[in-house]
Each structure stands twice: as structure tokens, then as C-alpha cells.
Amino acid sequence: MTNNILDVLTYMFDYLFEEAEQDATHEIDNTELKAHLSDIGFDTMRIDKALSWLEKIATIQDGKIKPFKTTYQGSIRIYTKTEKIKLNAKSRGFLLFMENIGQLNGNQREMIIDQIMLLGDTSISLEDLKWVVMMVLGNSVDGETSTQWLESIVFLDENRTIQ
């Protein structure tokens, strides 16, 4: 089994979603979640990193870490060499597209880039970027985003357009 942080996160979200559909009253705590993830074969170190990754999003959302603020609406993001390695041109274009259609603001973009940089992989695919976008925007307090719309981003066929 591939054992990167994003694999753990995507499995965890699928598992939690399924559990919530089956029994909305049952809340899964971290110990139960860690045990389940470990039982199916995820490395304990990766599980802990994935949970820390999620906690960072929550910390930013709670205002404990001051996020980046853009003051000029028409500004352009200049990516560092390391960020360009992690996010290819297609992925950077997707982030720009999301900003241009008003579904992502500068603060959210920076949170997404920050979370991408925390992932252990050398580069990230567009599909994986979409999962990160969904996770960050789904936990964002910077505006209301439809869950259905977020899911359409992740499961979007690259040959179709976003509605």
C-alpha cells in the first residue's frame, strides 16, 4: 500500500464520510481512527503526520496562526523554485482558475500552498491538489462553499468544464 500522507487523508475522509452516513450519532475519536487506519495497513508515523496536517488547518481556522492576507485584488502570486517543483504548471493554473472564478481568495490559496508544501511528496498531481483544495476549503471560515461544488472539483473529469 502506498503510504504517503495524502493517501492516509483521502482514505480517512472516505471512511469518516461512510461512518457518518451509517450512524450520524456515532463520533469517532482520534484513538479509534488511528486504530482503524493502522489495522488496514497505514504506517503509524504517516497517520500521525496526517492528523497533524489536519490540525494545522484547524489552527489556522481558529485564528491561532495568522494567515497570509492579500490587500490588492489584482495581485499575481510568484511561486518559489521549491513550490514550482511541488506544483507543476497545470496545478498552478488550477489555483489561478479557482481564484479567477471567485471560489478561492488569496488567503485560502496561501493556506492550500502551505498545506501542499507540508506533504512529503516531491511533486503533487492535479488530482491530489484538488483533494487538498477540497479539504482546505471545506474547513475554511473565509466564506461559504458548497460541499457538492467542492466534491465536483475533486471528481471532475478533466475533459469537462466546471459548472
From TrEMBL:
Query: Which protein are we looking at?
Result: Protein Smg homolog
- Of which family is this protein a member? Belongs to the Smg family.
Q: Which gene encodes it?
A: smg
Q: State the InterPro entries in the record.
A: Smg (IPR007456)
One Pfam short name: DUF494
